[in-house]
């Protein structure tokens, strides 16, 4: 007979859940402190009650395997699968629609038990038209990179974004992998070779001398190509909103490819998803295109 249990109520603060450091601190507290408080390591139940704030919040970590314990997941969404309210006496359909429209991220976490709205928030990828061939006419291309140097964790991502004469944009390709530094640099070099010299390249410069040294080495490696580097300015959500506004009004096309689905999922969950490398790269590419003088490439075939 179990005589005690541990109840955890909302371990994450909503305004801190996007911080990797603070979010990991909650998980470390769970592993290193809370679990040691069990009277019986095998029989003391733990009950976690919380809204979903990020794919890698405490609930997401536990449901993803966590520390190997078995968890029973009870998820009650205010919207049932058939589109009717779970508790109409408290919130009828009209009230739920009004609440969801007013605060989609809050509603997703508190009332749907999802890290982000189903249709997306900053990005609504359902507004992107997927095409089988590039539109006729010249396209100004930029291949931008978000850099990582690991075979686990963050990805290195290199989206290829083009600007059409009519003001629309097209995502023409995506390179994405978890690589060591030498293999990452080979990917960047080989991608530039496939893209051709008419496609501009934009790379981020990390703070400090190490960032300057990295940019110098990459620029030397890409001698003969049009390479631009700059530090990132502002937070990534603010940077992403500029390109997100174009996506959300249907001003962005995407060439069909195997890379489409991972990008769409990253967009849909941003900024509460596990990864944002492709979004960071697209934000950089969009900024480069908007600050360019309008030099168009006649090369239309993207590397996929």
Q: Key features?
A:
single chain, 304 residues, alpha/beta, seven-stranded mixed beta sheet, 9 helices, 16% strand, globular
What does this molecule look like?
This protein has 304 residues and is α/β, with parallel strands linked by helices. The chain contains 9 helices and 9 strands. Strands 3-9-6-5-4-7-8 form a 7-stranded mixed β-sheet. Strands 1-2 form a two-stranded parallel ribbon. The relative contact order is 0.14. The model is unreliable at 295-304 (pLDDT under 50).
Strand and helix layout:
Elements: E1 6-9, H1 20-32, E2 46-49, H2 58-63, H3 93-102, H4 104-112, E3 129-131, E4 139-144, E5 156-164, E6 169-177, H5 181-195, E7 200-204, H6 208-221, E8 227-230, H7 236-248, E9 252-255, H8 260-269, H9 277-290
Helix pairs in contact: 3-4, 7-9
Compose a concise summary of this entry:
This protein is an alpha/beta fold and 304 residues long. It has helices at residues 20-32, 58-63, 93-102, 104-112, 181-195, 208-221, 236-248, 260-269, 277-290, and strands spanning 6-9, 46-49, 129-131, 139-144, 156-164, 169-177, 200-204, 227-230, 252-255. The radius of gyration is 22 Å and the shape is globular.
What is the 3D shape? globular
Percent in strands: 15-25%
Could you give a short account of the major beta sheet? 7 strands, mixed
The value of Rg in angstroms is: 22 Å
N-to-C order of helices and strands: EHEHHHEEEEHEHEHEHH
């Amino acid at each position: 007979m179990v005589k005690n249990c541990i109840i955890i109520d909302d371990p994450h603060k909503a305004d801190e859940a996007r911080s990797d450091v603070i979010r990991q601190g909650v998980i470390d507290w769970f592993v290193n402190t809370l679990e040691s408080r069990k009277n019986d390591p095998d029989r003391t139940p733990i009950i976690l009650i919380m809204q979903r704030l990020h794919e890698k919040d405490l609930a997401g970590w536990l449901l993803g395997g966590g520390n190997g314990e078995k968890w029973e997941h009870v998820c009650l969404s205010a919207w049932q699968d058939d589109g009717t309210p779970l508790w109409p006496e408290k919130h009828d359909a009209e009230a739920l629609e009004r609440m969801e429209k007013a605060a989609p991220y809050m509603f997703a976490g508190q009332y749907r038990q999802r890290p982000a709205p189903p249709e997306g928030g900053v990005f609504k990828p359902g507004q992107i038209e997927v095409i089988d061939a590039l539109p006729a006419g010249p396209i100004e291309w930029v291949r931008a990179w978000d850099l990582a140097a690991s075979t686990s964790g963050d990805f290195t991502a290199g989206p290829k974004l083009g600007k059409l004469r009519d003001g629309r944009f097209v995502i023409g390709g995506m390179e994405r992998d978890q690589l060591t530094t030498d293999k990452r640099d080979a990917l960047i070099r080989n991608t530039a070779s496939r893209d051709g010299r008419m496609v501009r390249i934009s790379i981020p410069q990390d703070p400090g001398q190490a960032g300057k040294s990295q940019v110098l080495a990459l620029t030397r490696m890409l001698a003969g190509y049009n390479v631009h580097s700059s530090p990132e300015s502002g937070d990534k959500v603010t940077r992403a909103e500029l390109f997100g506004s174009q996506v959300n009004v249907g001003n962005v096309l995407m060439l069909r490819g195997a890379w489409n689905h991972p990008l769409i999922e990253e967009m849909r969950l941003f900024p509460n998803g596990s990864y944002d490398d492709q979004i960071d790269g697209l934000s950089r590419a969009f900024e480069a295109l908007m600050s360019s003088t309008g030099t168009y490439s006649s090369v239309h075939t993207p590397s996929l």
